[in-house]
What does this fold into?
Amino acid sequence: MASRPAAGKRPPASPGVRLSLRDPTVRALLYQVLAIAGVALVAWYLISNTIQNLETRKIASGFGFLDREAGLPVGEAMIAYSPADSYLRALIVGVLNTLRVAVVGIVLATILGALIGIARLSKNWLLARAATIYVEVARNLPLLLQLIFWWTVFRDIFPGPREAYHPIAGVFMSNRGLQFPSLIDDPAHVYIVAAFLVGIVVAFFLRKWAQRRQDATGQQFPVLWSAVALVFGLPALVFLAAGAPFRLDVPSLQGFNFVGGSNLTPEFAALLVGLTLYTGAFIAEIVRSGILAVSYGQTEAALALGMRRGFVLRLIILPQALRVIVPPLTSQYLNLTKNSSLAVAIGYPDLVNIANTTINQTGQAVEGIAIIMAVYLTVSLSISAFMNWYNRKIALVER
Amino acid sequence: MKKIALMAAGAALTFAASATPGLAQSTLEAVKSRGALACGVNTGLAGFGAPDSQGVWKGLDVDMCRAVAAAMFGDANKVRYVPLTAQQRFTALQSGEVDMLARNTTWTLQRDTALGLDFVGVNFYDGQGFMVPKKLGVKSAKELNGATVCVQPGTTTELNLTDYFRANKMTFKPVVIEKLEEVTAAYYSGRCDVYTTDRSGLASTRATGPNPNDHVVLPDVISKEPLGPAVRHGDNRWADVVRWTFNSMLEAEEMGITSKNIDQMLNDTNPAIQRFVGKTGDFGKMLGLDEKWSYNVIKQVGNYSESYDRNLSPLGLERGINALWKDGGVMYSPPMR
Ligand SMILES: N[C@@H](CCC(=O)N[C@@H](CS)C(=O)NCC(=O)O)C(=O)O
It folds into this structure.
């Protein structure tokens, strides 16, 4: 790396720096410069060529279209959206829909994967077999096929809205999805949520404190129960103090559809179930291999010391298994997020879906693809960064 | 796959100088030297563009492709059909994957300008409508407030739909699905109360779907949908070839020339017919084609009414506004002279 030739390697002919191609440092530098120049040249060629071609064909370019009225119909949105809104807002709706299915999917797939991974190692033959069959089926069928399958199921097995299943008051299941009561907004709700968050933070510090005290004095503290009390008790107190503001918007059938309440569409459900089952199978394998990577001798040793089974898993096996599990888990999270773009096939309005339509309506493919790439890159890098941080946190602390 | 197709389109635009002919070389020369026409068609819409049980493409739009191939090569079969969804079609044309689109595409200002297309004519005048199951008892589109509506993205249809409900102060729940089979499956499964598209598309879907008699197309027409073939903007010689190929089919109908009688017409003394069949004049040279170009179009594909009767009459679509101007319609070719 030094800019001067390393002393002693080759006797310099004269003191001071002499540039010679035979000098490995100079050569390395030269190659780097050439490589960068090459990449820049290619990039320049591609960009200028694209601009010129768009110009020759009179295809519009630039991002000006983003604040034009979109007029697009969008089936579900987490923020208020109407066709009178701009393309930008439509795209944001798409990003949020992508994040919604990805976040829920990651949580569910992790839980499912952990359970199935452990089940595959179970001594219960039936359980282990069932888990194996699930993993093999889910892993080996193309995801697109699975999505279409689930969508067809949700669409076709449920009756129309007029004959909807109605298991409990206010809940309807039909081919329009699951319709259920929702909470009517009240200013106090913000404080209740805040109290909940405060409860979590306090519980976190409580745990740290309890651990330190236990390390120092050996005295135990009922962390679990006090945490539950904090996390749920605080919001409950605020709720009562605010006069128990609890009113429900109960759906009812009006004309063609249900009005009021919240709705879970068949498209979202199909995508979520498909992604969860598919990714869950891969995660199960990762969890299983992680547990197997911890030698059985450790379990035996722990048991010999008189540890209970539950503690062995929590205190001995998992901390070590996690180090094996987390890196490949990260790529499964990334896969799930990227696979959510298959939503297009079943009409869930994710980012790719809305961006594709935007591209078609405005004709601005280059810009549209750039937006898709930028968003996925940002999301993927964020997931990676978070998982890397977590990985470092659980990594073996070497002393 | 969709993403890959779009990426490919993006890449093609990027490398266009090498990948596509549109620039220095005219599409006309490129198609000639390739020996086949790449024609963007429907993925499968009976009457406009769909493969039959033997895999042979049929339809009014397919006949447009065949006619252009007949004019260029004297062989209507020299077509490579590229099935495209509504969303894929424009990038496919822009990037040079197809030489022309004949895929019930509505001529609009934005497509003509910002999307870099040139429409060369209208081979079917249409309008947007709604189809509903009969059992809902709906009589007019004005009764659709609150309904769930199935629609394909990347169409004028989705834009007209939102406009219409906004203008009439009604709401609806959209289900937006790209593939025709999936969007119609969603409608027939009851996921949607309504399916909306061009009325010709509704007629086609209804006729080929399960129990046509259980579904009705509402009388309302909420838009103008002039459907026509399109080429890339700025390639005028190629646009001329496609435009006059279509016009020749109208002109032939007007002069009573059909695929059946054109061989007798070769000996007709009417000067207009003599020019049409290439006996006199040099229209072929002007277009950069063989002098028998229009003879080949009619001989191999037929005139407009033959194409219409073969493809659209079976769907129960009357000629109506698509009749020749002489017969009370708006189909009118500028004179071929
Ligand atoms: N004319 C409208 C709609 C054209 C369109 O794509 N219609 C649909 C419904 S009839 C269709 O042809 N689908 C057939 C396919 O996707 O192959 C437009 O140009 O935007």
